[in-house]
Structure formats: structure tokens, C-alpha cells
Amino acid sequence: xxxxxxxxxxxxxxxxxxxxxxxxxxxxxxxxxxxxxxxxxxxxxxxxxxxxxxxxxxxxxxxxxxxxxxxxxxxxxxxxxxxxxxxxxxxxxxxxxxxxxxxxxxxxxxxxxxxxxxxxxxxxxxxxxxxxxxxxxxxxxxxxxxxxxxxxxxxxxxxxxxxxxxxxxxxxxxxxxxxxxxxxxxxxxxxxxxxxxxxxxxxxxxxxxxxxxxxxxxxxxxxxxxxxxxxxxxxxxxxxxxxxxxxxxxxxxxxxxxxxxxxxxxxxx
Length: 269
Fold this sequence. Notes:
Layout: E1 14-19, E2 22-27, H1 38-52, E3 59-64, H2 88-104, E4 110-114, E5 118-119, H3 121-128, E6 131-135, E7 139-141, H4 155-163, H5 165-174, E8 178-179, H6 180-186, E9 191-193, H7 198-207, H8 215-228, H9 231-246, H10 249-260
């Protein structure tokens, strides 16, 4: 993909602003708690690559418009799920993995301003950020298992590194919702603040890096390579398992239950 300059960006379903060396990326689908569509994912990748190439930007804030950070994949997005038997893994390979790989390898600090729910792939985006400034009333969940899917969006790579294998396994297999206080206890949170202060606190946190040395990028590079291992291989595993999960009757039941606003009746096949 060809790099696009910040001045030439035409973001879809999100906004990008730059002030004093900090770029703020705002997911802008508040009516759907900023659920991720194919258009949004592809456009976000273009924006992050443009920000990476802009020397005047030294740090990034990622947040969501309205009352949520990101509720995960938009299950009604026809480009992502065009038909009942669509290969979910293809969407992961084409849209999620390039964005997550870019964010994880991003050599400028990324601060998540988590102003509400962070669920499923939305939790993955939050985990791909370096720091998480969290509202007191924020809620988290891996969510994937609730509709019969495996995890993607880097969750199985990043969550165990942050909270440990056993707790990551619990959160992924149960899909339980947990609040900001538990997230802090798990090590997911950089700072908890009142809801009205999330944006300002995240911006202030990001600004401490604006005057930092070039070695910030090298430190991030070291930690990603030595701490996370083969990122691309890990993301590829998520795509492979999502293909398998997406072929199951349980996934079809999960989608039907979600649409019908009822509990799913999984059968293990």
C-alpha cells in the first residue's frame, strides 16, 4: 500500500487531528459504540501509516467517539460478513492483521483513551496500544467466545503477555465482562480517571513523549522484538483458527442468537 501524507488523508469512519506533536485518532461510529467495519479498518491502516511517516508527530492517542471505545467487529457489516458461510479468516488476514502488525510495531508511543466499552477486537486495539488511560466506568471483555468464534485482533498474542497465560485463558474462554478496577489489578491499565477526564489525561500522557529522544523508537523496537517474539506468525495463527471457528454450526448459532438478542445454544460443533 502506498503511503499517504497526513494532509492528503480522507479518513473513513474515523477522524485524525494533530496538535503540538500529538496525533489523535478518533473512531467515529458512536451510534454503534465504534464497531469496526471493513471500511474503518482499511482506513485506519492508511492513517496509522501516514502518522508513522510524519516526523512532526511524536505520539498518538487512540480513542472512540461517544460513550464507547470500540465494541469490536460490526456483525452487520456486509463487507466483513457478506454471507453466512464466509471465511472469517480472510477478513482477519486482509484487514485485522495488517492493522495490528502496524500498531504493534509502531515506533511512536500510542496511548489508548478508553472512554467506555472495549470488547472483542476493540479490546485487541486497546492491547496494541502502549498505554491505556481508562475511565472509571469502562468495561472490558474478550467477547469472541460468546458468538462461537476464536480470538483475533492480536488478543492471544498480547493479553497473555500482559496478564499471564492462566488469566488470559480464563478471560478468553469465559468471555466475562470486567470493570476498570479489575483491569487495573490484571495490569491492563496505566491509569484510571473519572470519565470526563479521559481525553485530557490521555493527551497529557502522550505529550510527555513529544520532546523525547530518538531512542524512544529504538526502545519500542527492542521490546517488541524481544518481548513479543514473531508477531506475524502469532497473527497468522489467529487467522487460521478463525477460519475453522467460522465454519462451525456454533458460530452460525452465535450470530443468530446475537441478532435475536437471546442466549446462544451451542452444541460443540
